[in-house]
Amino acid sequence: MVTFETIRNDEAIRTYIRKGNENLGVLGFTEHATAHAMRVSHTAADILRRLGYGEKEIELVKIAGYMHDIGNCINRTDHAHTGAIMAMQILTGMGMASEDVAVVIAAIGQHDEKTGTAVDAVSAALILADKCDVRRSRVRARSQADFDIHDRVNYAAVNSALSVDAQEHVITLDITLDDAMCSVMDYFEIFLQRMIMCRRAAEMLGCRFRLLANGSKVQ
Q1: Domain span at residue 168?
Q2: How many domains are there within the chain?
Q3: 124: exposed, middle or buried (C-beta count within 10 Å: 0-12, 13-18, 19+)?
Q4: CA–CA distance from 112 to each of 126, 131, 170 (Å)?
């Protein structure tokens, strides 16, 4: 049986994540290493667990969350699609049932905001976990003088937390921004498409998506 632990301990998958992160570092992108993969995996699983989904969906979303960025070892462009094809080959080779493979690769293939959208609970949870991972520790530029707008927004995120209120059917991203470095307007300039994607993902899970920025509700 292919489990999250099987995937997490696979040397080839770890290599693809590491090389993808190195490639993105050369291109000036934020961190997409194992730390991001693990955070997305656990956050996505927590979303489904709090909403009452079964252990099978939770295990599949952990796997998808961990593997979602492996396509970056090929190219940032279309990394969701190439990553899904890589995952299909890897998981099929490990003996995972085709029905489960289909769920995982759909989530990976749908996670990029330029081409994807939530199509089921697993893809929805992955999207929310990935797009809400905004934190200054992901910034790799050593000097603030070298920050682009993405670096500035991530570095300005003093604190961010994604919470699920299963009773009220609300999923909330509560983010605290250093407004001396980044305004709420700056955040939306960069992340509006991602937040719209999160709203649709939450709706797929039967919830509303709410964004709190510096304590204020953003409609």
Answers
A1: 4-218
A2: 1
A3: buried
A4: 10, 9, 23
| Residue 211 to residue 217: CA distance in whole angstroms | 6
Rounded Cα distance between 213 and 59, Å, is 31
**C-alpha 73 chain-centroid distance:** 17
CATH number at residue 204: 1.10.3210.10
**pLDDT band at 171; cut points 50, 70, 90:** very high
Q: Are 7 and 63 in contact (CB under 8 A)?
A: yes
Token pair belonging to 136: 């200054």
Determine contact, residues 129/38, Cβ cutoff 8 Å: no
User: Could you give the 3-state DSSP secondary structure of residue 171?
Assistant: strand
Q: Where are the alpha helices (DSSP H) in the chain?
A: 4-8, 11-27, 34-50, 55-67, 79-93, 98-109, 121-131, 149-156, 184-204
Please state, in angstroms and rounded to a whole number, the distance separating the CA atoms of residues 215 and 81: 36
Using DSSP bridges, classify how beta strands 208-213 and 170-177 pair: parallel, antiparallel or unpaired. parallel
The 10s digit of each residue's pLDDT in 101-122 is 999 999 999 999 999 999 999 9
Question: How far is Cα 19 from Cα 22, in angstroms, rounded to an integer?
Answer: 5
Higher-pLDDT residue of 57 and 151 is: 57
Cα 38 to chain center, whole Å?
Answer: 10
